[in-house]
Amino acid sequence: MMNKKHHFGIISLECQSSLINTLDKSQATQLGDQMASELSKVLRLSADVSLVVAAACYPTEAMLTPHFVIHNNLLKYASAVFQGEQQQHRVLAIGAHQGNMPEGLQPPDSGAPLMHVPFVLISEDEAVCHRFEETLLDKGMVSPPTYQLLRDFFQGPIIHANYMTHLDLIAMMHNHYDQVGMHHLWQVIETALLAAEPHFDYNHNHQSFYLRGQTVFMPFVPLHAFRQENPGSTTQGFIQWLLAQRLAAEVFQSHGLKTAFFLSDNPCRHLDDDSIKSNLIKSDFYHHTQPSERRPQQPQLVDYMDPDAGYVWTILTETNGQQLCFYPLNKTGQAAIDAYLETNHGELYHAADKRKQRLDGRLQESSGCH
Questions:
Q1: Are residues 291 and 353 in the same domain?
Q2: CB contact burial 257-270 (16+ within 10 A = b; e otherwise)
C-alpha cells in the first residue's frame, strides 16, 4: 500500500429532500460491488486496482476539510484491511452498524440538497491515474443500475448522481462561492485545502482573515472602536459588520477550520503575527468597562437583541454609572458571559433587573433572560 497511489473520488447526489445518511453493511457490499463493476468499465481499471467506499452520504463541507479527513480515513481503513492480500480488484465497502459508521466516518446530520458518497481508488498504474483525473467528470452520471441502487438505499428522490474527483468538487465550489458573493471566504478555504503550509491574508471591505495552518484569525472590534474608526457609522452598520463576521466564522468552521479572535480597533488594519498573538482573545467572549451618565436605582442587566443577528451584546449598568459590556464570540459565548458574571460579580448579578431589549429600543422581554 505504501508504494501505491491513491485517488479521491465521490458520487455527488443532487436530492430534493433529506436522505438517510448511512447504509448497513449488506447494502454497503452491494453498492461497493456495483461501483467497482462500473468504474472498472469506465476507467479500464487494471487488475491491481483496489476500491474503498464509505457507504454513507456527506454534505460538501464535510468532504472539503484540511487533509481531506473523510477520504484519508478511508485510506487508513483500506491500508489495514488490504495489507498483505493479493492484488485482484479488491473492494472494501464500509457500512454502518445500527446507523453508526466506524470512527472517523460518521456523517453529520444534514438536509443539504447536495450530498456525496466518497470513495478511494488505489493503484500503481499511471494510466489509471490519468484516466481518473481526466475522464471521471466527463463520465458524468452514474449508470441506471447504480442510480437505482442509490435511490433505493438512501431512500430519497435523487435528481442526479454524478461521478467526480475531489478536485472537481473544489472547482465546483469555487464557482458556487463566487456566484453567491463569498469568493473572499473561498480564497481562505481553498488555500487551507490545497497549500502544503497554508498561509494567507485577506484584507478588504472591513473584513480581515489571517489563515495560519488550520486556524483563521479574525479581528474583533467593539462598538465604540468601530464608531471611532468609521465616523458617521451607525449601530446598524456595526451589526451588519458583525453579521458578516459571524457568517465567515460559521463557513470556516463548517469546512473544519478553527477560528480565533484578536482585539483590534480597526478591522482593515493589517497586523503582523506577533501583534495578532499579543491581542488574542482567549475566552468565548470579549468584555470591557466604560463610564455612563446613567444612574439607575437598581443595577440593570440588559441583553441586546437584533432581528437579524439575534443576541449581540450584554451591558450591566451599576448604580454608580459604570457599565460592563460583553460581546459573545461564538455560540457558547452567552453561557460563558453568564458564568463569568455569576462567578465574578455574583452579588451585582443577582441584584440586577434583567431584561432583553431590541436595538430599536423596544422591550422584548422584561425578565428571565439569564
A1: yes
A2: bebbbbbbebbeee
